Amino acid sequence: MGKFTKVLLWIAILAVIGIAIYPRLFKAKGDGNAASAPPPKRSALPVEVTRVMPSVIQDKILVNGNVLADEQAELRAEFAGRVTEIHFEEGSPVKAGDVLVKINDTELQADKRRLKHELELARETEQRQRNLLAKGTTSQENFDRARNRLQTLKAELEVVEARLEKTIIRAPFDGVMGFRYISLGSYLTTNTRIAGIQKIDSVKIGFAIPGKYAGKVSVGKNIRFTLPGRERVYQGKVYAVEPRIDAATRTLPIRARTGNPDGSILPGTFASVELIFEEFDNALLVPSEALIPALGGQKVFVAVDGKASERKVKTGIRTPSTVQVIEGLQPGDLVIRTGILQLREGAAVQVAEPSAEVVE
């Protein structure tokens, strides 16, 4: 091979090598320029916020209950006999002590008259024996016998008068009579149902709450309740709390009372009851989605001068959509509720319109 041919061969080899390494050198140069260039400026993150303002919130629980009469009774006879008089109408109001039913008392009245006559005679005999004993013309035994006879007749008369009182069935309290189950001439026994009576100028609301809330309820707590088919919300007040937890249901029975002057709330009606444990007038509420779990508690982000500021918070009562913040926020703070997973302390944010809303 000639000298000229060798030169051409080396030129070709160098050309191939140059073609192979040139792109790499160009890329390395480009990378160096990119590394020296400043990073692009990040834009502010669009977010939605809630302006935290003092609101009224209630710590409460919703349970089912039943309406009960303030007083109720099933009237039955204490003395067997035939009905001679009925003095009430079904569904009519009555007063305590009103005569409702009269049972035949002919024999008892005859016994009463007989005993009164015997009692009058025994009283005269006892007085005569007392005078004779004072003069010493009779024995102590005769006087004692006369006095014992007098006392016995008095007791027998009291028994008859008590039986006579049982032939009269009276209203035990002010109330409204229910249906009657007897008629004139019916023979009553002590098991015969006469009628029902209910006092409904005020009514009771019976309900139960889970036992874990036992420490929150006490006499005097307010309730609200609604009845099926009615839009009105009724008010009541707890007047009694059962002093034990029901072992079968693990619930605490409670009763409240409310006025019912027009009688429109009927016993036996189902009631949806809202028991209010406590009410806060100046509570700060945030949307539940704004809370972020944090080490040792929870936190939120607040928009301050176009930047996100992290605030650790202490929470209280929860509602279906909001949470009460006890510590960590001030009235007027703009709590960020969207894009919170992309936020960090000092991150630029752009508050979307509307810029704020009040949580209620």
Question: What are the main properties of this structure?
Answer:
single chain, alpha+beta, conserved putative lor/sdh protein from methanococcus maripaludis s2 fold, Elongation Factor Tu (Ef-tu), domain 3, 3 domains, 6-stranded antiparallel β-barrel, 25% helix, disordered C terminus
Quick structural summary:
This protein is of the alpha+beta class and 360 residues long. The chain is built from 3 helices and 20 strands.
What topology emerges from the helices and strands here?
Blueprint: H1 3-36, E1 45-47, E2 49-51, E3 54-76, E4 81-86, E5 93-94, E6 99-103, H2 106-135, H3 140-166, E7 168-170, E8 175-180, E9 187-188, E10 193-210, E11 222-226, E12 234-241, E13 251-259, E14 270-287, E15 292-294, E16 297-304, E17 307-318, E18 322-327, E19 334-336, E20 349-351
Parallel strand pairs: 1-20
Antiparallel strand pairs: 2-19, 3-10, 3-14, 4-6, 4-9, 5-8, 6-7, 8-10, 10-13, 11-12, 11-14, 12-13, 14-18, 15-16, 16-17, 17-18
Helix pairs in contact: 2-3
